[in-house]
Request: fold
Amino acid sequence: MLTPEDIEFMKKTRKEIVSHREHPVTLFYALDGETDPITGEPIGGGHGEIYTNAVVTEIASQSQVDRYLSNGIEVEKGDIWFSVNIDSVTAEYPHLNIVNYEGRDYTILARDKKGIGERNRVEMVGRLET
Reply:
């Protein structure tokens, strides 16, 4: 059985587990704007930015095929899977839509909160924008 002490231990050691495996990324999220009262179109808004680190896996290195299904998401060569600390994205989580990794923008296709006993990270899949 998982105890509160076990959960706290896992939370503390996560930093050690991901050390030297993280890369800098910039996450973009949609900012709420106003709605035009006549047309209903959004006015203003834009994007906010979060500078953080992520453990990144390039899908091309994982697959011998051009595309496959992973947890209901069609994944293609060139996509990335990445994991960030949940504390760095908690408030903006529902609005995350783009990640910049190594100078390239990826559209976020899926995002899930993960962790054993307590949520400690967000795992996302990104598709290279063309």
Observations:
- The two ends are 47 Å apart (CA to CA).
- The chain has a mean pLDDT of 85.
- The beta strands are 22-30, 34-35, 42-43, 47-58, 67-70, 73-76, 80-85, 96-101, 104-114, 121-128.
- The first strand starts at residue 22 and ends at 30.
